Model the fold of this input.
Amino acid sequence: MSNTFKIVLVLVGLALVVPFVPGLIYPVFVMKVMCYGLFACAFNLLLGFTGLVSFAHAAFLGSAGYVTGALMIRFGNHPLGMPAAFAAGVAAAALVGLAIGGLAIRRRGIYFAMITLALSQIVYFLAVQFRWTGGEDGLQGIPRGSLFGLDLSSDTVMYYVTLALFAAGFLFVDRVVHSPFGQILQAVRDNEARATSLGYDTDRFKRLAFVISAAVAGYAGAMKALVFQLVSLNDVSLHTSTEVVLMTLLGGVGTIFGPLLGAGLVVGLQNYLATIGDLVTVVIGLIFIVCVSFFRRGIVGEFLHLRRRRAERHKRRPVRNATRDPAPAAEAA
Amino acid sequence: MAEHALVTEGLTKAFGGFTAVRGVDFAVRRHAIHALIGPNGAGKTTFFNLLTKVHTPTGGRILYEGTDITHESAAAIARRGIVRSFQISATFPHMSVRDNVRVALQRRLGTQYAFWRSIRSLSVLDDEAMALLSDVGLADSAEANAADLSYGRKRTLEIATTLALDPPLLLLDEPTQGMAIDDVDRIKRLIRRIAVGRTILMVEHNMSVVADLCDTITVLQRGEILAQGSYDAVSADPGVKAAYLGGGHA
Ligand SMILES: Nc1ncnc2c1ncn2[C@@H]1O[C@H](COP(=O)(O)OP(=O)(O)OP(=O)(O)O)[C@@H](O)[C@H]1O
Ligand SMILES: [Mg+2]
Done:
């Protein structure tokens, strides 16, 4: 059993008891963290493990939310409505990802990021224009339907279903990172020219990574649409695309658990500081500045780095002229 | 089979108005160790970049084993068996030394797109990766991050990674540049050993390495071939002497 799997088991174990201790922590809050946590993991698959900066992730989150929501509003009563609408949402996000990624991948660095941004603005524009997305109002009162006969309108049932969906999605991302494909992605991130010279079509790897990342972001978006029973323009907005960058960097880019922790922190601050209104964004901004100034690897990244340094001091290594690595170190497998 | 593994005809690369490689007609005999030398800025790296499609030629043709590969992609050329090393060392810095080699071996499994498979499916390659590392004297650093290796060992790792593909044609861009003398000797012995059954084209500034290893030498100057032949013939060439004195080279 891998360490990741063990930690996921512990987290799921803790989450299982949440509905039994009312007042300690709200199940709705935990569900929100799970949705955004998975969203950030999807983003991290690109930034941390492929080396691509995307400003289009809200477009994937939102388009899946809209598709799942609109289908549930029409076919929510059907016994297979929920799984079908969920799958359709994920597929829609993957297709949007294929379109945006396919166009952007021809460019490098900042140009890549700017193209994803421009294309995601088109998705936003379409969400405002289309009738089926509800325009300015978005989709409200989305029915949750049922899954395998379980009525999801109960918050407790929805909570456990969300937990299962989250665990599956999280372990999927972990598998992609630790797969033969994930190895090549890391090689592309580390040194694209070298990966090409070994015979790998790096653009194809980046495109597939982009589609997988978009699909997982869509998976989180479909979850979110069902949990909150609403989808709004905020879900496809640039604000959401930048928030996921912040969550990922805060928790630790290129680590497995960092994005989840970052999402937990940001969502937590937003919830518990809601009383100070718009000042929340200032507080989060300040935390972000402190983080990138003093803990460039993010919280989980710094932790892993310290642990590795300690381990190295215990075991003298047969290497000479050790050089400092300039980029955040990837989490050990 | 033709006598030559690699042939270029009128190969040309212009960057805007500046022509870095100009009409180079060139051939490497199969299983030879062929040196490409010339003063700084002569166009040697650019020539390698053309052969491996880092740059697209603006004119001329490249033939590999008689096939025109001028218009193939960089990755496709590598899959044909033309694999290069880089002038500035090229490793995957955040991967372990062993994983660096394994990434090259992995292509053979054909699972490079298998995102649903466990990474454990790659452990069938571990023994072979370790054997390659022992071969070049890096086995003791297998678990270290490539970024933590010394410069000389990084370059050695690059050669091990290149060898993992078992390429019939190896392009080495200054494999001994910046190395201490004992590292140079080790690389020299390594190149001689791996040259058996392969063709090697190498850019090299260290003339003792060239004299010891290479059967044919091509001298490039300002993007054009200045002289070609054995070490003795080339070093006696008055044009070469002038270019090297003029170029400020030892
Ligand atoms: N991408 C590029 N754009 C414009 N000019 C370039 C480019 N790459 C190389 N050049 C120019 O082409 C010429 C040849 O460069 P190249 O790197 O091939 O030389 P070299 O023979 O490898 O030299 P060195 O011995 O210093 O490695 C140089 O004048 C260089 O400035
Ligand atoms: Mg050069």
